[in-house]
Amino acid sequence: MHIDKEIDTSGLNCPLPILKAKKALNELTAGQMLKVIATDPGSWRDFEAFARQTGNELVSQEKTENSFIFCLKRR
Asked: For the domain that residue 45 is a member of, what is the CATH number?
């Protein structure tokens, strides 16, 4: 999977990871991919809801030992 932009929101709590992801997605064109690294446990359901509400595709989400990784495709 080709990632066009990556942001690290580690240490930030809701709603900052979503707000930073929204800003980063606005800088991309349709079909481009954004990778977000987060540590906020609430981000798991926040990114699911964000994708549903905005029409951006949540291509993958992964839990690692210390973080959550999300890949979103710009609508």
From this structure: 3.30.110.40
